[in-house]
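Most newcomers find our protein records easier to grasp once they have seen one. Read left to right, the backbone structure tokens trace the chain's path through space. Nothing more is needed to start thinking about how sequence determines fold. An example says more than a description, so a record of this kind follows:
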Amino acid sequence: MATKKKVTAIKNIPKHLLGIQNLSVLEANEVLTEAKSFIKLNRGSSKKLDVLRGKTQINLFFEPSTRTQSSFDLAGKRLGADVMTMNMGNSALKKGETLIDTAMTLNAMHPDIIVIRHQDSGAPNLLSQKVNCTVINAGDGRREHPTQALLDALTIINRKGNIEGLKIAICGDILHSRVARSNIYLMNMLGAEVNVIAPKTLMPKGINNLGVKSFTDMKKGLDGCDIVMMLRLQNERMQGSFLPSKREYYEFFGLTPEKLKFAKKDALLMHPGPMNRGVEIDTKLADDINVSLVKEQVELGVAVRMACLKLYCK
């Protein structure tokens, strides 16, 4: 009697995670499905697995980070990897070493995964060409922040059940935001309708070519929206004057209970953090557990990054 062969799932995952723009729907859904399995684990008393036992993860953060760096660090350790987070402020880069030289040095140590956040767009792509291991983009310049978009998608799915058919507003500094770009790519890919809202000075030219509707009026942009995603003002990337004042910005583009009423009655708000309270968002609204998903985003960020580390580390 013939025996049946065991059928295993086909993994649709490439070697690197450099941006949402590089992903297919299958790949994105595979990460989200894997991440769901880690939510319960992270809420339990025993959180340690050994799926990355013997693997080495190096975190290279050239920009300050609290949520992304700590969650990648925690995610690697919960999967059993040996995690090294480098202090780039004291690295040889301060002595004139180039990113390529740093890459070659690290490559000689035979890591399995490098997680990189860098102020220059394209840095993770360059690194991926110089090392033999997996590279995961934790945010590069104004280009992309793929794991943030994936955790935002998981947070929405966890609350709403699905993304397809939802109307999502992304509001704030669209021009300088890598979070906005990655979310535009992913939410469109998963079947949402996306509105972007910003003052003209913070709205990229040709943004409508990405399949979104752009608004400079918050009331019109929030109309009928299920999710309101606020963005931080990227002051560190602004060269010149983009705003008359933060006070005026809050009046027209800060999210308040009154402005949220323009969206659907059961609309939920999100923010990638850190939040500038009284500039982008009203404090009471940010802390309202019936409306705000901010804490849930942080929690599910660990699950998403665990999924990425597990799936991309070959």
Remarks:
- Residues 1-10 have pLDDT under 50 and may be disordered.
- Strands lie at 56-61, 82-87, 113-118, 134-140, 167-171, 193-197, 213-215, 227-230, 268-270.
- The longest helix spans residues 25-43.
